[in-house]
Amino acid sequence: MLASTAVASSHREAPFIAGMPRADATDFYMFRSYEPGREKFVTLVANYLPLQDGYGGPNYFQLDPNALYEIHVDNNGDAKEDITFQFRFASTNNNDSFVVGGKKVPIPLIINGGAINDVNPPGLNVRETYTVNVVRGDRRTGTRERIANPSGAKVFDKPVDNIGNKAIPDYAGYAARHVYDVTLPGCATPARMFVGQRKDSFAVNLGETFDLVNYKSPAVEFDANAERSARDDLADKNVTTIALEVAASCLVAPGSADPVIGGWTTASVPQARVVNPVPFNTNNATKEGGAWTQVSRLGMPLVNEVVIGLKDKDRFNHSRPSGDTQFLAYVTNPTLPALVETLFAGAGVKAPTNFPRNDLVTVFLTGVPGLNQPAKVTPSEMLRLNTSIAPVAKGSQKRLGVIDGDNAGFPNGRRPGDDVVDIELRVAMGKLCTLNLGCAPANAPSGAIRFTDGAFLDDAAFNNAFPYLTTPIPGSPQSVASRQ
Questions:
Q1: CA–CA distance from 198 to each of 141, 148, 236, 332, 462 (Å)?
Q2: What was the pLDDT predicted at 88?
Q3: Which one of 130, 187, 308, 312 is most buried, counting C-beta atoms within 10 A?
């Protein structure tokens, strides 16, 4: 096995979005639900706000009330959204105060010492809520309706981040109260929804990878331990998750026999922003207006990191799938394999020689024929899922997905336990050529090498039920009893 180049799925992947972390999408997942009894559903997960430390107070990691977070679904292969789920957030400061020396003075924290054990609990000084619209057709001009819970309520609470075990002794139970059953306009089957902090659902050896693959002992020959040889630099990081579980029948095109859907997530902010020189509350630091401007985009993992050239990374984040022909050369003539060859030429590693790389076009732009390619497809970058392929139960999933014989995994959608770093490294270096998919074995001299970043990932790291991602790491892990 060869330890080789990889990066986090979308953590600070472009120069502009690195300065707007609250709008930075880190990972996107779309898979047939494998929770027992929920197999007819599709789960969509969009993670935002990367590299959260559990101890990151006192403000922690609220989503941006001036941003628009969206999950898009294309169900006819034309590279345009047919269904969009739009999330807007609001933050309310309760202005809790203490009486100090006879004066009532606002406290400096987002918690006030009261209990945090239910929705909108008395212990919170800041309440974060959100609303969700379903848009059918174009995301800006289509018809839109509000998502509600069975009682008709259309405003939902987001749990506060996992501040610590003294403030929130049972965070898992507290967060679970924020999983909502909801009614989707145009869908007869109720859905489920959750928004809140989770443990980062990705694994990658970041630091040494970015330092020109500066691993201490990179394996250049078969080594049974290579896939577990490096640290996971995200092992102690959290993210903020937006998760929906929707009946598959409500996502495919009405009346169509094509079971394939495409998906991606974006974040947009108003075009104009002026900093307020004299803010008088926490929601008045800027004045914003103008048209929505997209600043983040994520479908297939790792695309903007290791496929798109540096000069076009911001452009890609502002683009839509329908305009992806402008980035075609990055897929047909990729630079990552050439970089791998340069770094490991001494070990005999060689990049594939088939140009254009049509094997990569099928993975990233059209879907794989017979697996997840729509009946009619416009080449474009997004995650594609064949909703007719049954899910595989937790414990039986293969972390390398399709290339290891598990057609319910990546690149047929993406599950939390799919090790997309290792999968994409191997595909980039010609794994599909060894399988005679779009190229021949002779085109990929190193196609059989088991490339890995050494940060192991499989479904053991995830839960067996919605929202699947695990409880976030607390800022203060010690309990009150352990301190006494």
A1: 33, 24, 11, 36, 11
A2: 98
A3: 308
Q: Closest by alpha carbon to 282, among 157, 127, 156? A: 127
Identify each DSSP E strand in 299-356 by its residue range: none
Angle at the Cα of 149 from the Cα atoms of 147 and 151, rounded to 5 degrees: 130
User: Which residue has 């707007």 as its token pair?
Assistant: 20
Distance (Å, whole) CA 484 – CA 477 = 14
What residues does 247 pair with on adjacent strands?
Answer: 41
- For every residue of 411-464, DSSP letters joined together read TBSB-TT--HHHHHHHHHTTHHHHTTSSS-GGG-TTTTS-EE-S----GGGS-S
For range 361-383, the mean pLDDT:
97
Q: Report which of 415, 364, 426 is spatially closest to residue 389, judged by C-alpha positions.
A: 415
- The residue among 431, 441, 450, 427 whose CA lies nearest residue 306 is 427
What is the model's pTM? 0.94
| Residue boundaries of the structural domains of the chain | 17-443
Half-sphere exposure of 451 (CA within 13 A, CB side): 29
Check if the beta carbon of residue 52 is closer than 8 Å to that of residue 240. yes
Structure tokens at 103: 């004066």
